């Protein structure tokens, strides 16, 4: 059974109702550097990974499980992800998101 | 001088040449949970913030400075960002990215 390669980009963020001390610290640091107009700083996790699955539906369901079980804490975090089918050659190469700006 | 509100989404990732122990730990944890096909796990930061500026060019240049000076360590990290002009009403409300999946 041939399996398809996928690249996932996962964004894990604190639920809006949850206090974000790291975000508050960065915000006050930025104000201290003179960036007074900055507000609503929220810090989250950005995870890139590759996986193989027989089709998109299976890949999505695996990724949901991966997020629920390990990448995000459902009690305080939300997650969303983007999933792209990639060629085996892409799977070997560097992820475009990691290439310099 | 009227100022425009902006919402920024910043992605900070380790340069590809830099080892990612956190990513390796997550990868082995996922293998331990039975997700053997997962590979190339890389963990980064996802930062959301709002700022005001007189125009897009100024907002982008401020965000570059903010990334270079505080959000990313240029020696080992890359960053990229998305910047959207928002209405004052949006600026008050919850960021769409933070709303549950």
Compact description:
The structure is a homodimer of 101-residue chains. Chain A has 101 residues and is α+β, with helices and mostly antiparallel strands. Helices cover 33% and strands 36% of the residues of chain A.
Describe the protein.
- 2 copies of one chain form a homodimer.
- Chain A has 101 residues and is an alpha+beta fold.
- The first copy, chain A, has a single domain (4-96), classed as Mth169, Chain: A (2-Layer Sandwich), CATH 3.30.1280.
- Helix content of chain A is 33%, strand content 36%.
- Chain A has helices spanning 21-32, 56-71, 88-92, and strands at 4-14, 39-53, 77-86.
- Chain A has a 3-stranded antiparallel β-sheet with strand order 2-1-3.
- The model of chain A has no long low-confidence stretch (mean pLDDT 91).
- The interface between A and B is large, with 48 and 48 residues.
List keywords for this structure.
phosphoribosylformylglycinamidine synthase activity (chains A, B); homodimer; 101 residues; ATP-binding (chains A, B); Mth169, Chain: A; alpha+beta; 3-stranded antiparallel beta sheet; ATP binding (chains A, B); purine biosynthesis (chains A, B)
List the uncertain runs of chain A.
none
- Helices and strands of chain A, in order, run as EHEHEH
| Rg calculated over all Cα atoms of chain A | 17 Å
Q: Of all protein chain pairs, which has the greatest interface, and how many residues does each chain bring to it?
A: A-B, 48 and 48 residues
Give me the oligomer status. homodimer
How much helical structure, as a percent, in the residues of chain A?
A: 25-40%
Fourth-tier CATH superfamily name of chain A: Phosphoribosylformylglycinamidine synthase subunit PurS
> How much strand content do the residues of chain A show?
35-45%
Distance between the termini of chain A: 38 Å
Estimate the mean pLDDT confidence of chain A. Answer: 91
Give the tally of β-strands of chain A.
3
Q: Which topology of chain A does CATH recognise?
A: Mth169, Chain: A
Family (chains A, B): Belongs to the PurS family.
EC number (chains A, B): 6.3.5.3
GO cellular component, one term (chains A, B): cytoplasm
InterPro entries (chains A, B): PurS (IPR003850), PurS-like_sf (IPR036604)
């Amino acid at each position: 059974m041939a399996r398809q390669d996928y690249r996932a980009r996962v964004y894990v963020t604190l639920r809006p109702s949850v206090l974000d001390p790291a975000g508050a610290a960065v915000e006050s640091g930025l104000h201290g550097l003179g960036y007074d107009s900055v507000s609503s700083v929220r810090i989250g996790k950005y995870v890139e990974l590759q996986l193989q699955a027989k089709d998109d539906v299976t890949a999505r369901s695996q990724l949901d499980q991966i997020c629920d079980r390990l990448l995000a804490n459902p009690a305080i975090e939300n997650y969303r992800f983007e999933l792209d089918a990639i060629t085996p050659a892409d799977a070997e190469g560097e992820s475009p998101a990691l290439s310099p700006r």
